[in-house]
Design goal:
By secondary structure, the chain is of the alpha/beta class. The protein is about 40% helix and about 15% strand.
Length: about 375
């Protein structure tokens, strides 16, 4: 038996997405920017997908563009908003726990002479609201200020105060990473530019970029007339169709699914510290995404534990981004002051049943004990 518990990295393809994708592969393969009959059919499919996704996100169709993937959407969101600022010296303010794609875009901005400030978080992973706002409102940023704040954290699930930032600094354009939120939870109000990832709601590999009308945003790429001049290249029409269809289906069941997965996550949060000694559950216990939970086990190597759980049939990920080559801990967990080894992130999708979670919890103590024994820590 295999149980996939890593939906935050990419959920299994939703049945509706699969059906829509296969149909669109037959009718939407042509370049939608040409004038042939085949291209016109592709254009109709692309326009319908854009209209559907726009309705799901509550934006105008011309405010939405399709991107190759979620990472590229985050890059475009941050760099495009900075490019639209008054100066190359614009000040980017972001939380310390943003997705690595946002941090990498920040590095590009800094290397070009821009100013970047990272705002710390508390032990649950929530940004210091007062510091974020005060930094955004500083008068010492003549090049303008851009804020970047995720809707909720991708590693521990903690929601961020996006609406409070937006209301407290209404003149500061706010880039919001909704890659783990859209399809699972309400997208907070107040954003200026939004990035999303279809893979996290059961769609194909496709990123979504939404830019509110009136926001100063300029494409960071060479000029191209595709996707309203925001994203170069021919959009993937079948992927757009599948992403739109699956999001519509997911949103129809979202509230019931969120209630179900939130109960399973609560079960994991409550049970793991009871059955595995020296274990800490991370993130806010209540103000969180309904489908993500991360915990840390003392005296355990995270990669070894993930490998052991995979051997037992459970696919999870680590809350740490450590690899054998870099040995660098997760920047999220470091910012939280959390244990950066022995981390396990469990993220649920609609195919995960209560019996799957029970089986995982039954296997976990033995897996941890095995790794601790290998490291000579079983007697601690």
């Amino acid at each position: 038996m295999r149980v996939y518990l890593d939906a935050a990295a990419g959920a299994p393809l939703h049945p509706v997405a699969r059906e829509a994708l296969l149909a669109a592969l037959d009718d939407g393969w042509a370049d939608p920017g040409r004038l042939s009959g085949e291209s016109r059919r592709a254009r109709l499919l692309l326009d319908a997908a854009r209209e559907s996704l726009a309705q799901s996100i509550d934006v105008r169709p011309d405010e939405l563009s399709f991107v190759a993937n979620g990472t590229a959407a985050l890059h475009a969101a941050v760099l495009g908003t900075l490019a639209g600022a008054r100066s190359a010296a614009a000040h980017l303010v972001h939380s310390a726990v943003e997705h690595s794609a946002v941090l990498h875009a920040a590095q590009v901005h800094a290397s070009a002479g821009g100013q970047v400030t990272s705002i710390g978080v508390d032990a649950s992973g929530r940004v210091d609201l007062g510091s974020f706002l005060s930094t955004c409102l500083k008068k010492s940023s003549p090049g303008g200020v851009v804020g970047a704040l995720q809707a909720a954290n991708h590693e521990v699930g903690t929601r961020q105060p996006v609406a409070q930032v937006a209301s407290g600094a209404p003149d500061v354009p706010l880039v919001v990473d909704a890659t783990q939120t859209l399809g699972h939870d309400d997208v907070p109000e107040g954003w200026s530019v939004l990035a999303a990832d279809a893979r996290t709601w059961g769609g194909p590999t496709l990123g979504v970029l939404a830019v509110r009308t009136g926001v100063r945003w300029r494409s960071p790429y060479p000029e191209d007339d595709r996707e309203f001049g925001r994203i170069p290249g021919v959009p993937d029409v079948p992927a757009a169709v599948a992403a739109a269809a699956s999001l519509r289906a997911v949103l129809a069941d979202r509230d019931a699914e969120a209630e179900r997965t939130s109960a399973l996550v609560a079960q994991i949060r409550d049970t793991v510290p009871q059955i595995v000694p020296d274990t800490v559950v991370l993130g806010d216990a209540d103000d969180r995404l309904p489908h993500i939970v991360t915990f840390s086990c003392l005296y355990v190597d995270g990669e070894a534990l993930l490998t052991e759980l995979d051997r037992l049939g459970f696919a999870v990920s680590s809350g740490s981004s450590c690899t054998s080559s870099t040995l660098e801990p997760s920047h999220v967990l470091v910012a939280m002051g959390a244990l950066t080894s022995g981390n396990v992130r469990v993220s649920l999708h609609p195919g995960v049943r209560a019996a799957d979670v029970d089986a995982f919890l039954a296997a976990l103590p033995g897996a941890v004990a095995t790794i601790r024994a290998q490291l000579g820590a079983d007697g601690l």
